[in-house]
Please model this.
Amino acid sequence: MVQEVIIIGAGGQAKNTSLVIEQIGSWNLLGFVDDCPEKKDTTIRGYPVLGSLKEICEQYDEVNFAFAIGNSAVVQRMVEFIKATGKSFSFPNLIHPAAQIDLSEVEMGEGNIVFPSSLFLSEIKMGNFNFFNFKCAISHEVRIGDYCIVQPGVNILGRTTLKDRAYCGANATIVQGKTIGKNSLVGAGAVVTKDVEDNAVMVGNPAKLLRYKE
Model:
């Protein structure tokens, strides 16, 4: 059965997500949401920008949403806004058919998106609204919170924990058994060999503290 979905976001990540939704093949993409008034009634890859989130929540009583925004805090605020409406909005897990995932080994909440060529192995548990870009590799007994963003080519080894709103940049590696703190950022290409504190920005190989987020 084909269901309808609206992408929240209208940038590059949203463009790629629209392609993934097309390739999944079981969704009818209605268009995009963007709060910038100038974007309304424009098109992205042939799909319309429907309006702001507030407008869409007023227009619909029941629809599926997919988040394609590269800022976890913004996604969290939007989720809270949508749920506060009390309407029957849903947040499906969207998994590309070219992702290698045994769903008997992966426990997911809602609103997670997995792009192609990602590999999820055994005994993985995650929460809600996480985004996994192309070619992510997640090993055994990994625990992932909510609103995490994992960019292309990231390797997360066994018994690792990503707390809420953790961000892993492209081609980063998290070695076995480490904890990535809440609201932290691991830079592109970084190799994390020790636990990362909450709000820390880590870069380099081995990864070192650059600064703390304000």
Q: What stands out?
A: The chain has two domains: 3-84, 94-206. DSSP finds three helices and 24 strands in the chain. Residues 12-24 form the longest helix (13 residues). The CA atoms of residues 162 and 172 lie 13 Å apart.
